[in-house]
Amino acid sequence: MEKFEINILGCGSAVPTPFHNPASQVINFRDHLYMIDCGEGTQSMMRRMGLKFSRLRHIFISHMHGDHCLGLPGILSTMGLLEVGGHINVYVPRQGLDIMERTIRFFCRDEEPEIHIIPIDGASTLLDTPSLTVRAIPLYHRVEAYGFIFSEKPKSRHINGEMIRYLNVPIRDLPAIREGADWTAPDGTIYPNSRLTSPPDPSRSYAYCSDTVYNPAVAKAVGPVDLLYHEATYTSDLAERAIARGHSTAAQAAAIAKEAGAKALLIGHYSKRYRDTEPLRAEAAEIFPDVTAATESMTIRL
User: Fold this and answer.
1) Measured between alpha carbons, how far is 173 from 184 in angstroms, rounded to an integer?
2) What is the pTM (predicted TM-score) of this model?
3) Which residues are bridge partners to 159 per DSSP?
4) What are phi and psi of 197, to 5 degrees?
5) pLDDT tens digit string along 105-117?
6) Quick one: which of 281, 292, 247, 291 has its CA closest to 14?
7) Are 146 and 62 a contacting pair, CB within 8 Å?
8) Could you tell me where the beta strands, DSSP code E, fall in 41-86?
């Protein structure tokens, strides 16, 4: 199957620690890179993980708190120094549009890459390519915040090469057959598509939800994705603190995964108090068994 990978560059919250970097992930979809959030240290982690700046064309910022965006001017400046050509799209909540534009104009004065700052304004489709759709969904934090859903579009069916050769089907007819069409032979015989192809590989999906308090509306917006990343800043003994600061507990992250119908859960955005994240993972696993605790340099393949 074609590449669909989630690379974890940072999974801590609020401040860098010796154990975790602030939030950042890079999605590698068919060798095109899409960044979600850009905390301090992101560009260093890109180098460590062998992720190429030249393949990064889209950066999605979930909200305008420093642990999710303070690395952005640095990475854009570095791309200018490296003479990365073309353009790069930076998607930010409308609430932070003005300050982000002024910051980038001040620090990133190179002519290339050309930087386009695009406002996120409510639930919307941010990117629609022939193979991938990226949507923004509202989250419930102390400031305007969004989650992002990456959905692979339906794929073409697999050609049955042996049958195609046996029937001497012309190459010009293969695109239609891949899309599900039957084939009519020169003698008028109609061969159903099911004899000429096999089902396509399943399309994959990934949702990123950080930062947010527990809200069933998030589960409804996410739906049955293959993998859900959901913040798990605290364990349940600190549930009141989580509410006050606009965050979720590990148990609440698991509840959202269960309500959404996700196949698997990835937790992160840990408070600096957790050097060991096993208590967070264990708490989530009591509600949603297929859970993984994110760590820096982790790559998950869908």
Assistant:
1) 10
2) 0.93
3) 197
4) -140, 170
5) 888 877 778 999 9
6) 247
7) yes
8) 56-60
